[in-house]
Amino acid sequence: MGIISEVTNTELPVTWERACTGKHVPLPAPGTNYFDAVRESTAQFIKSNGQALVTVDEAAAKTYVDSFNVEKFDQYVTEVNQWTRKLPLKFDNFAQELNMFSIIDLLQIGSGFRRDLHAACGRGASDTIVFGCISLHISQTPVDAKGLQELTLGDISQHFGIPLFGDEKPMREGVTAVTVSEASPVRPLAEIILGILQDTGRRLEQFGFASFADFIIKICTEQATAKHLVEKLVNAFPSLRDAAEINGKPVYLFKKAQLIAYDVFQRFKDSEKIFNFPDIAEMTLFADNVVPAMVQNHGMMTPCDAIQKKIDSSEELTLEETTAMRAASIVAAQLVVDYANSAECKTTPGKFPINQATLDNFWWKEGKDPELRKINRLVCKNTVYF
User: Fold this and answer.
1) Which residues face 182 on adjacent strands?
2) Residue 254: which of 16, 12, 84, 33 has the closest Cα?
3) pTM score > 0.85 for this model?
4) Which residues contact 57 (CB under 8 A, 6 or more apart)?
């Protein structure tokens, strides 16, 4: 898409198309447990060619568990689990509420623009997404299947507070009477957000669903399990097909699809029985940019020198490097889970079981601690997945 072109209802942003890097990756065979597919594909990748990029330390994982702060773990998991209840919004019904926070999860992207967003908007990626979705709700902008398709780049800029243009400069050197505006460094993020929402709206309408919430409700009415919802989400929407094909083999991550299912469970498990998923503990880490940084900080994984140099300088990683870092964090998390739930481990359990989903909550929240927030994270801008 050109720098000054508005997106019409007949085309999607090229930026979004390019960022959907997993849309052509072969999906797991029908009947496959998608959580197992994530565990097995990431483990195989790290064991084979991924090991040259990132190594995972099993002994360090055991040491980490032996010194685990259970009280802090319980506190942070509780806080993350309750985020949907803290939205400063009123809803007409549960479906409207479900639709809103599911769209927030659908849009949990932009981590690669973190520094640019702070400079341009004064907010990080996650806060930018929540801010924008709250604005859409307060302004009563329709976010059903039809409404998502009708959004424009200007709407995204206005609601999410993402500037489309940066500084002005003379059109000709030395002539200040006529100036042109340069594209803002965060404009590609606005285009990606628009693409996600427009494409999701089109597909919902194509499949006969009135809204994203309508899709989730009907899928969970079919089968009330997290794995079923995740599989259907990944198959239906390219913006949730979080996978990469490295050396001819797929590596599955499925971060946002799992996050949606997890938050649906946390918010509605007590009030809507179709969302009280019995398999929630089978989920894997929702691997983004924060969690790998925390896993590395705790000494459980070590990137190669080339990746570390890029992380230290906040340089953008390649798809293969990004996949390796995220996959390694999932492998490390499984080592923690296996040891923490073994007879060998002497750590006293707390309020929450130690599984990959609760570890993700803990490490994500831990990454917001002032002393840990300064740790450099992996940067990847060309993605719709985190």
Assistant:
1) none
2) 33
3) yes
4) 299, 300, 301, 302, 332
